[in-house]
Amino acid sequence: MKKSNVKIKLLTVLFLVFCFHYAFGAACGDVNGDGSIDIVDALVIAQHYVDLHPVDFDPSAADVDGNGNIDIVDALLIAQYYVDLIDELTGCPSTMTPEPTSVPIEPETVFAVNCGGSAYTASDGTQFAADTGFSGGSAYDNGSSVSGTSDPTLYSTERYGDSVYSAPVPNGDFLVTLYFAENYHTSSGSRIFNVIIEGNEAIGDLDIYTKVGAGTAYVTDNYVTVSDGEINIEFVTVTENALINAIKVDVISYSGDPVVKFTVSPSSAKPNSTVTVDASASIDYDGSITHYQVNWGDGYTTEGAVTSHSYSSDGNYTITVTITDNEGNTASSSETIRIADIISECPFNQSASPSGSNWVNGQLITFNSSGGWCWYQDERAIVDKENNKLIIGSVQNGQAHVVHWNLASGSGQKYTLDSALPYNDDHDTAAFIKTKDGGYAAMWSGHKNDNYSRYSYFNGSSWSSKKNYDWGSNAGDGITYSNMWYIGNTLYSYVRSTGTSPNYLYSNDNGRSWNFGGRLTSTPQVGYVAGYYKYWGNNVDRIDFLGTEAHPRDNNNSLYHGYVQNGRIYNSNGQVIDSDFTDRNASNITAYTQMFRAGSSVGGVSLDHAWNADLVRYDDGTIAVIWTARVVGSSSSDPDKRLMYARFSGNSWKLTYLSRAGTKLYDSEQDYTGLGALDPDNPEVIYISTPYDPRTDQGNFSGKKEIWKGVTCDNGATFHWVPVTANSSMDNLRPIVPKWDESHRALLWMRGTYSSAQSFDTAIVGLIEGL
Predict the structure, then answer these.
(1) Contact by Cβ (8 Å): 161, 134
(2) Are strands 641-648 and 623-631 parallel, antiparallel or unpaired?
(3) Burial, 472: exposed, middle or buried (Cβ in 10 Å; 0-12, 13-18, 19+)?
(4) CA geometry: angle at 762 spanning 757 and 767, to 5°?
(5) Spatial separation of the C-alpha atoms in residues 521 and 560, rounded to whole Å
(6) pLDDT for the residue 338
(7) I want to staple 520 with a disulfide (CB 3.0 to 4.6 A). Which of 181, 502, 536, 655 is the partner?
(8) Of all helices (H) and strands (E), which one includes residue 343?
(9) For a pLDDT cut of 90, what percent of the chain falls above it?
(10) What is the pTM of this model?
């Protein structure tokens, strides 16, 4: 018989004895339940207090002073009562609340997961599911070979960082087996964390290396009781990052309530399309499920294990499934679905057959025959739906330009915002926003060569003359970039300035004048700057950001996400990191949610030196990212760069490999690639620039960079691809998609020769769909 089975059967016997002994309650102070209050009860508490007592006792009878703790004071009070120094014990109830009837069952695995990895069948037959049921943390494929186990596969992947695993289970008693291995650190004290199960600390200050050393399996068994129909296992960082390799949960005794398990397909849908709920996986251990009811959250209910419904309008709807067993016991569980009228491209069936040189999949439009941009100022282009215009910024020959493109006539008017930039540099491109009074605001700067943010306002007929905001001592050694978004009626612009970190200006008159605000982060400067940031705002109440520690040539960057809302700054999961975003005090970017950890593996490729390319938060709360990274160990002069995708669906970040990215754009910037863009109106659609065919990941490392369209029909897990350009004699770089609506799309990019950030011969071109 396996050792784990012996432990389970022994626990079952102890549990039955315990239930019988305490079925009718114990008096306050009668900790061991023998009918008398004596010195033995005090001894039991004292042993418990110093971790010498391994047997369960009645907690309602042990807290005799009623302060919520069971400690040495309670033991002292019992001893005093026993020798008649005090008259009574009144801190705890006189009887224990009767426990619900529990049914011992043959131990059965109700939840098993290979954290951070794929499905796996262990040597004892346990079937571990692919990583599921988690909230927070990041997956990592460490590729390590672990000793001390017959199942090393379970330890080759992990979920690291603060995370919670949850699963619906019957109310009852469980054996939770946790699998750990330290495959990263090589010294004690480098990683310390706590494990909390059902709100109680099960393991405190766990240091795996101190327990078993590096590369060795470490397994713990933990006995817990669940009374709310869901088991929650939390991993909380003390030092560095908490981690977990695998989890197994076995039910030992069962209270009799059924357990709801259901899926919703699809997870988001358009109005009037079919949504199906499948609750057939629900469980009743001591009988059968006799009734299923689905409340769809819009006043409509249906019955059956598998049932369908369609919603008539946009919105977020909470679906609640209620089941009833043959004894009349019920259980319910809920999930929210997003209904939005996007034009879905799934199932994806587009194809293209490129022919001839400089092929484009559509009618190419040249918006500006001479212009370029960097990718850290947003938005570089905006759509004015009310006036049917596309507003597009760029720089060339030391001048900042903006084109007003008339969508009805297909023609544009070019304005010069600034003809006296310090020198020609694509970093000097303006950011734009349509203001809440109907105009446009623009802001731009030099490239870390002076202390001025330039700005202008368009009143419907003309742009105002350029004005300068002087950062003065708040500029550090020069400012760079502008990123404008509203929160309420206040317009914010995030600018790289003090300590080469992002600080913001704010305007209460829609960009006609500006004031100095606060600091977003205070990451220590490494090399050239203290990190790079991408932003996205809903222009209502929230601004999201994705940052790095430094430039990837100076630091082995990871990527971190947070957001500004309600006057505070939060990590991805809504934990407050900075309680006042308006002040000059700020946290290191590493305090926020680590979306990607340098050295992690995505799609079987180990990556480091990450950089951010695009960020969007969709109306349903989904956040998507396009980013780049180097292959670990590749050349430092022209590394093997890859394009990647990430998606946050409200619980955790999931990372997806996209494509090789090809050679660097020029000699001194070994991490410059063609980049990519997210469609802010359709989370299914992205665009990337690469010399490789992302369908096969084959191509020419030094070839011309082409634009590809990617469509995901499984929430970012995989992408289908179709070319937008092909057979080009020039590069197609840095695509963007300005926010419009579900029926229209504008794709813009740079097309031409790019020699450096200060020397480029490119045009701003693109395609428009939906007109």
Answers:
(1) no
(2) antiparallel
(3) exposed
(4) 125
(5) 12
(6) 78
(7) 502
(8) none
(9) 67
(10) 0.68
What is the distance between the alpha carbons of residues 604 and 594, in angstroms, rounded to a whole number?
19
Number of H helices, E strands in the chain: 5, 55
Backbone angles phi, psi at 164, to 5 degrees: -135, 130
How far apart CA 319 and CA 277 sit, in angstroms, is 9
DSSP one-letter string for 692-707: EETTTTEE-TTSPPEE
Give CA–CA dist 109/129, Å, rounded: 12
pLDDT in tens, 704-760: 999 999 999 999 999 999 999 999 999 999 999 999 998 899 999 999 999 999 999
Tens-place pLDDT, residues 586-628? 999 999 999 999 999 898 899 999 999 999 999 888 999 999 9
State both tokens at 670.
Answer: 């070994």
DSSP string, 105-172: EEEEEEEEEETTS--EE-TTS-EEEES-SEEEEEEEE-----BS-S-GGGGSEEEEEEEEEEEE--SE
Q: The tokens of 476 are what?
A: 């550090």
Separation CA 610–CA 576 (nearest Å): 25
- In the three-class reduction of DSSP (H, G, I as helix; E, B as strand; rest coil), residue 211 is classed as helix
Nearest to 433 by CA among 462, 400, 455: 455
Q: Dihedral of CA 26/29/30/32: which sign?
A: positive
- Name all contacts of 750-755 with Cβ < 8 Å and 24+ positions apart: 750/371, 750/372, 750/373, 754/372, 754/665, 754/666, 755/666
CA atoms of 525 and 748, how far apart (whole Å):
33
Q: Is the dihedral of CA 116, 121, 122, 126 positive or negative?
A: positive
3-state DSSP assignment of residue 42? helix
- Bridge partners of 159, per DSSP, are 139, 244
* Residue 169: C-alpha distances to residues 10, 109, 230, 261, 549 (Å): 22, 10, 5, 9, 41
Question: What pLDDT shows up at residue 255?
Answer: 77
What crossing angle do the helices spanning 39-49 and 72-82 adopt, rounded to 10°?
Answer: 170
The token pair that represents 543 in the structure block: 């601004």
Q: Which of 33-42, 55-64, 555-564 shows the lowest per-residue confidence on average (mean pLDDT)?
A: 55-64
> Look-up: residue for tokens 């309008």?
313
Short-list 612, 450, 440, 460, CA closest to 536: 612
Q: What is the dihedral of CA 649, 652, 653, 655, to 10 degrees?
A: -100
